Amino acid sequence: MEAITKTNTHLKLSFNLNHYTLESPKNLDVSSGNENTTLGISTKTPPPTRPEGEILLINKPLGWTSFQAVKKIKYITRAKKVGHAGTLDPLASGLLIICTEKQTKTIQSIQDAPKEYTGSFHIGAVTPSYDLETDPCNFMSIDSITDDQIRNVAASFLGETDQIPPLFSAIKVDGKRAYKLARKGEDTVLKSRKIFLTAFDITGIKGNEIHFRIACSKGTYIRSIAHDFGQKLGCGAYLSSLVRTKIGDFNLINATTIQEFEDARKKRPDFC
Question: Which residues contact 58 (CB under 8 A, 6 or more apart)?
Fold first, then answer.
């Protein structure tokens, strides 16, 4: 303590549950982020926690599972509680809302909100998974299919309808995920559910590719709409691309990629 005696200074230590601070006069070298070798006390203050949490709008990349995105955000933020408000399949991209800490309490209300999607159906074939997770089969000609037929079929989905979810889904059947049973080739019957579409716009028709915008209630499987769309046309169809653009009032245009989020977070003074 010789340094303190010569300078006739006083040190003040204050504690709380999360960290301590060390107050010192200017002529004592205990600058933040360094260690005072005379006192043997570290003056580096741990970054503050964010107990209130955040609601993050993430543009999930194609090929990522929703779980992988959550895991990455948890690593970046160092949050203890992290969850997403609605799964996006690996073959879909777009808006994935991830909540941390206390904001995880909002997940259910966000999940209950209506959704909007854009994407495309490929008509003239089907797949067991209703998308490109499995290979197309049962190819049929679409020469007799007209644009008017396509638009009329789309209009038939508006309002409340019954929908049977795809077998390749995370729905549980006797405690087992349906997609696991489907991959084993086991026969599985899923119950239909009520869905509601407020919009089904055909935004483009290019050969076998039908581009669309759909606004729907929670729990709607766009893959099932693709399959049912093909059945109504009489030529088969599967989902060839999908982007989620809205969840309630949350919009994809306000979302960031995971890389953008990580880069921005690294620039924050409390990042460690």
Answer: 69, 73, 95, 96, 97, 98, 255, 256, 257, 258, 261
Only one residue has tokens 């209300």, namely 109
Domain ranges, ordered by start, for the chain = 2-42, 55-111+252-266, 115-247
Assessment of whether the complete model's pTM goes beyond 0.85: no
Say how many CA atoms lie within 13 Å of 80 toward its Cβ. Answer: 6
CA distance 6 to 51: 43
Tokens at 249, concatenated: 């009032």
Encode 23-60: b = buried (16+ Cβ within 10 Å), e = exposed: ebeeebebeeeeebeebeeebeeeeeeeeebeebbbbb
Instruction: Give the integer Cα–Cα distance in Å for 35 and 29.
Output: 9
Please name the CATH architecture into which domain 115-247 falls.
Answer: 2-Layer Sandwich (3.30)
- Mean pLDDT, consecutive 10-residue stretches, the chain (272 aa), reads 41 39 40 40 46 92 95 94 94 97 95 97 96 96 97 98 85 74 76 95 98 97 97 98 97 97 85 59
Active site residue 89: yes
Closest CA to 12 of 220, 105, 4, 247: 4
Which of 29, 89, 112, 147 is the catalytic position? 89
